[in-house]
């Protein structure tokens, strides 16, 4: 059995979400991978006021995303810069973000090839909402780790010793995670004032170099990710198929038993009546 | 107008009977026993007929009880055509067996449980078809990302 050419795979993936509820996010990601253009997509997310927009503005080179003390980013914003689509997301904060925000965030994370979790180093270790998001991503696909970068922002606001201590604490929380330590403001100032020392001390060049390596590999990463997601969906589907096959075999068997029982009961009833008729001498 | 005829007929019969008894005066005891025997036979026949009727009624009640039990088990309404069909199936003679079996199959298909089984199998089969199709979609996607 093969698929007809006219089958709309995108629509079929949506339908499949109903069949495989636990793979819904992966199937949506698979759909996003099919429709992804050539450009890599990098999503920047984190709690509000942790420096997401400042980081994006530093990367892009001018103020595209608004920086504010209050929560400004309420919708997902995208910006195409040097062949990369940068995605700014609303804050992670569970206490302020509504269902729409969470949906927008999920959609942004599902469409991105690289995820940058921005964390203000002054806040210390990762808090509950950041850990929850990380765990949610890992539950969905443990390989998210390979495309997740933790960006410790505003490193110019703490001493090197404090920074080291915080990094140690975070490494205990999330071992094996790629960590970039940056100061976007120091980078912007270095560029603006042409001070290479500031640029170098900002940590931004290393961060951008790391993203460049990921960008180069993005096509291969996408392919591998898609194959991994398909494998996972296949395993779930096979389990479901076996379960349903057994259920069907059982239902058919019960059906046959019911029919057999009916005819057996009819036969027994006829015999009983015949025997009773013979006993009564009524033929 | 019938009464004179009856009187005439009755008299004639009595005369004939008496004449018979009289003409058969060489064996008076046999004639008497014949009359007694006829009476007994009649009574016996009546008793046998009543017994047969009672037995038939007993068998009918037994058949009804068995039909009721079976109807209850298979959710066939006790009143109405389906119950009659079931009864006819149980008492069909061997020569009517083929027709009875056809009726039985129709009766079976009309039961609620049969229909539930049928729906359940069809639903699972449909689900299985959708899952098989989903597997094909995944195979196609896999080819796309190779």
Main pleated sheet of chain B: none
| Alpha-beta content class of chain B | mainly alpha
Total count of strands of chain B: 0
Estimated share of beta-strand residues of chain B: under 5%
Terminal Cα span of chain B? 115 Å
Assembly state (oligomeric): heterodimer
C-alpha termini separation of chain A: 60 Å
Low-pLDDT residue intervals, each spanning 5 or more residues of chain A: none
- Order of strands, main sheet of chain A, comes to 2-3-1-4-5-6
What does the overall shape of chain A look like? Answer: elongated
Helix content of chain A: 55-70%
Q: Which parts of chain B are unreliable, with pLDDT below 50 for 5 consecutive residues or more?
A: 1-26
Give the structure's gist in a few sentences.
The complex is a heterodimer of chains A (283) and B (146). Chain A has helices at residues 9-19, 24-35, 52-60, 99-111, 128-140, 160-173, 184-192, 196-201, 204-216, 218-280, and strands spanning 41-46, 77-81, 84-88, 114-120, 148-153, 178-181. Chain A has 283 residues and is an alpha/beta fold.
What this model shows, in words?
The complex is a heterodimer of chains A (283) and B (146). Chain A is an alpha/beta fold and 283 residues long. In chain A, 58% of the residues lie in helices and 12% in strands. Chain A contains 10 helices and 6 strands; from the N terminus they run H-H-E-H-E-E-H-E-H-E-H-E-H-H-H-H. Chain A has helices at residues 9-19, 24-35, 52-60, 99-111, 128-140, 160-173, 184-192, 196-201, 204-216, 218-280; strands spanning 41-46, 77-81, 84-88, 114-120, 148-153, 178-181. In chain A, strand 2 (77-81) and strand 3 (84-88) form a beta hairpin. Mean pLDDT of chain B is 80; it is low at 1-26. Chain B is mainly α and 146 residues long. Chain B is 86% helix and 0% strand. Chain B contains 5 helices and no strands. In chain B, helix 2 (28-73) crosses helix 3 (81-91) and helix 3 packs antiparallel against helix 4 (97-110). At the A-B interface, helix 1, helix 2 and helix 10 of A face helix 2, helix 3 and helix 5 of B.
